[in-house]
Amino acid sequence: MHRRTALSVSAALLAAAPLLAACGGEPHPGAAAVVGGERIEVSSLQAQVRDVRTAQEASPQAAQLIQATGDLNREKLNVMIFDRVVDRVAEDNGITATRAEIQRTRAEFTQQSGGEEQLAATLLQQQGVAPDQIDGVVRRAVLMNKIAAKLGIENTPEGQKKLTEVFTAASKDLSIDVNPRFGTWDDAKIQLGTFSAPWLRQISQDPAAAEAGA
C-alpha cells in the first residue's frame, strides 16, 4: 500500500462536496462540538485559527491566503472533528502512529517539498495549516496509510467507497454534535454539512503536482 494511495483517499474524505444534514442536538455552552462525549472547546478552535492567521499575515501572499480561507473557523473545526474520527477508526483496528513514524514521514514530506520552509508554505497555502500544526497533518497521513493497508483498501472507486463506509460507521458511533453556529455534521460525507472548501487538498507525494493543482 503506497502512502499516496491513502493520502488521496483521505483528501477525498476531507474535501468531498457537502450535503446538508439535520440539525444537531442541544448546544453545549463553550463547546464548538462534542465528539464521542468529549468536548472540542471554542477556545481550542480559536487558538488554531489564530495560529493560522498569524502565519498567513507573515506570508508575502497574505491577502490571497486570508481571502481563500475566509471560513477558517469551520475549516479548522472540520479537521479537528475528522481527526477524532480517524482516531476512532485507528483504535478500532489496533493502529497507532509512533513519534518515530511521524518524524520519518515528515522528513519524507520535507524532502519531497524541497525543504521545511517550502513544506510549511505549501501546507499553509493548500490546507490552511500553521507551522506548529504540521505534525498533526503528518500524523493523520500515517494513520490513514495504516488504516488503508490494514483494511486492504486500494486506490479505486470501490476502495474509496469501502473506506468511506468505515469512516461513516465510526462517525455515527461518535454521535457528533456540533454547535449550530458552526453548522451540522454529515456522517455520510464525514464533514461539516454546511462547509465547502474547494481549495482544501491533502499534501501530495509529488510537490510539483500539488503546486500545479493549487
* Tally of helical runs: 9
Radius of gyration: 16 Å
* pLDDT < 50 stretches: 1-26, 197-214
Structural class category: mainly alpha
Report strand order across the widest sheet: 2-1-3
Q: How would you classify the quaternary structure?
A: single chain
Largest beta-sheet characterization: 3 strands, antiparallel
The number of strands is 5
What percentage of the residues does DSSP assign to strands (E)? 5-15%
What are the secondary-structure elements, in order, as H or E?
Answer: HEEHHHHHHHEEEH
Question: Residue share in helices?
Answer: 55-70%
Q: Whole-Å distance between the termini?
A: 26 Å
What would your notes on this structure say?
The protein is mainly alpha-helical. It has one domain. It is built from nine helices and five strands, in the order H-E-E-H-H-H-H-H-H-H-E-E-E-H. A three-stranded antiparallel beta sheet has the order 2-1-3. The protein has a two-stranded antiparallel ribbon with strand order 4-5. The longest helix has 21 residues. It is globular and about 40 Å long. 41% of the residues are buried.
